[in-house]
Each structure stands twice: as C-alpha cells, then as structure tokens.
Amino acid sequence: MTTHLLDCTSDELEAWFAAHGESRYRAAQALRWALARGATSFEQMTDLPAALREQLASEFTLAPPPVLAETVSDDGGTAKVLLGLGGGDAVEAVRMDYDPEALGHAGSERSTVCVSTQVGCAMGCVFCATGQQGFTRNLTAGEIVAQVLHFTRRRRVTNVVFMGMGEPLANYAATVTAIRHLIDPDGLHLSARSITVSTVGLRSGIRRLAAEGLPVGLAISLHAPDDELRRRLIPTAAGTTIDELLAAARDYIARRGRRVTFAYALLEGVNDSEQQARALAARLRGIQSHVNLIPYNPTAGETLRRPSRERVRAFQRELQAAGVNATVRIERGAAIAAACGQLRTAQARRREPVALADGRPR
Ligand code: SAH
Ligand code: SF4
Fold first, then answer.
1. Which class is 3-61 in CATH?
2. Which residue lies with its CA nearest to atom 3 of ligand 1?
3. pLDDT tens, position by position, 181-216
4. Can you give the residue ranges of every domain in the chain?
C-alpha cells in the first residue's frame, strides 16, 4: 500500500524533498496543498514542477477515504460520517456546530470535529460500543487527519476532539503527528488550545504528552470514585490507580498550565449516587479541573441504563456543592462523543450484550 502523504511528519517530508535534491521549503508547500487547500491529488499542486508531482504521486497517495455513510441532523448542526479504510475496516467522525446566538448563549461560534484514532479499541470499557467491538488496528496519522479534512473541505472547523473510536494514547505517534498537522501554520492552522485529547488514562502516554510541548487540552476518563468500581467499568485499568492518574493530571496541569477535564459516564445504579459524587469530589478537591458528566448513551446492551435527568442533576449538584466544577454534556455533545461507535456498530456484527452479575458490570 502506498503511504499517505499525511502519514509523514513535516520533518520526514523535508527529508524526502532534500533527498530528492529539492528545497526543504517544498515540504511546506505540499502540506499547504494537502491540508489548508484540501487537495486530493498531486496534480492539483500546480506550483510544484510536473516531474516532482509525478515523483510524489509514485511514492505517496493523497486520496481521501471513501464515504460509506453520512447522516446529518434535521437542523444540520450535527453530521456523522463513516469512512472506509480498506480491508473492510471503517471509522467514523462527527462534526457538531455550536451557534451561541441561536441558543441565546455568550461566546463565539464553534464547529467541533470528533475524530477516531483506532478501528475498535482494546480497553474494553463495559459501557462503550467501540470497546465491545474489540481492537482491530491503529489508524495512521493520515487517516486521522482525513476525518477532519472531510469536514474542512465543506466548512471551517474550529475545534478537534480526540473522542471518537479508540484510545488516542495507545496510538501515540500517529495521534501526535496528526495534532502537529492540525496546528501547523502550513496545515490546518488550528490553535492547540482548541484541540482536546481524551484518554482512558494511560499514565505513560499522559506524561509523554505533557512533555511534548503541545498545549492541547487533556480529558481523562475517570468514571468511578474508587479503584474497585473503576476496574469493573474499565477492565484494562487494573495496572493504574486513581491516585496515580490524579498525579499524572497534576503533572500535566503544572507543565502545560491548563486545567484537566475528568470525564465521567453516568450509569444508573452503578456510579451515579450522591455518596459517590461526594467521594469523587473529595478526591478531586484542589486539582485545577473540571468534571464532564456524560449520561450513559445506551449502546452496549440492555443491562446498563442512563440515569434520570434528576439523578444527573443531583450528582452534579453534589460535586458543585463540594467546590468541584461540573457540567453535563448536552444531548448533542453526547451524540458526538458518547455515541461515537454507534454508526459503525450498526454495520458491524453485534456482539453479546454486556451482562451484569449481581448488579455489577463484568
Ligand atoms: N478512548 C478515549 C476516547 C474515546 S471515548 C476515552 O475513553 O477517553 C470518548 C468519551 O466517551 C470517553 O469519556 C468515554 O468514556 C465516553 N463514552 C464512551 N461510550 C459511552 C457511552 N455509551 N455513554 C457515555 N459515554 C461514553
Ligand atoms: Fe476505548 Fe474509550 Fe471506548 Fe474505553 S471508552 S473502550 S478507552 S474508546
């Protein structure tokens, strides 16, 4: 298979051009075409010599992945796309627009794209459709960026969140290369601050990212106030304690000067009691953070349920009363992140639903 141009870092491209007797500046030129201008073939790069374009085309591809399905919400504010990756694999990406004026809110207009980083996921979270599919493969940097490009070819994108299918920090190199293309002034020129990486909590990955010099936002999926429950919800979390994760979060905040978001998927009767909210608040006190409550989006079977609106509010109130900043992800936000995996699931062979033994997820 030919390498996608955007699988290469800008340094690798500079080296390629240098090796072909060309100025390093050509790398920036090619990236501008591929990213800022959304070119889909080398033919379009009209300010590159024809021979060089041919040479590029013989070694690289710029072809976008085929669109297998696309759904747009009635008001046009949310779009979800399923992209084919060859070999029967597919991933999805979602675009969600936020128009403060229409909602009577302050702030500026945003268009956020939620990208996937893997086909499936090896982490096995019991409430996650992607986790229940198991792991197939990592995406390349080009395949991650292609999801954003699908939308930027149609309209401006202001934010990118790594909250789709897969665990970004388990596909570290491709994730970081993709982020660099997104923020590259010759690329999509997004602000690193408008990019958020969500992780299930891979400690070494969080530390590596903190050292990367990219001021991207970090979200850590916590889901439980204690290790025992967290391990039941995230079976692969066994090696990491919440205390260790909070230490990694503190380190990230200190190094990057940004608060961290803790994601908490609310599951009725499992992790949504007021007592659990107080326990969570006690652990987070003093950490410059923000809790993002995500009412469970039913995807993984009938045994898990979304709590009532009242229970969600009560959980949020307990956190706030204890001085912990907490917001509830709005329904459309849920469509973007929590529902990531659903479109693919609809096409993939269904697995056995997650079963609860004595009220506990397995
Ligand atoms: N693997 C990363 C990023 C992808 S998941 C992570 O786990 O953080 C993005 C977010 O959606 C995570 O916070 C995840 O816990 C949440 N999520 C996944 N499935 C969900 C569901 N069915 N209901 C609610 N939240 C869900
Ligand atoms: Fe993977 Fe995130 Fe889903 Fe867990 S929630 S299975 S880490 S994609």
1. mainly alpha
2. 163
3. 999 999 999 999 999 999 999 999 999 999 999 999
4. 3-61, 67-351
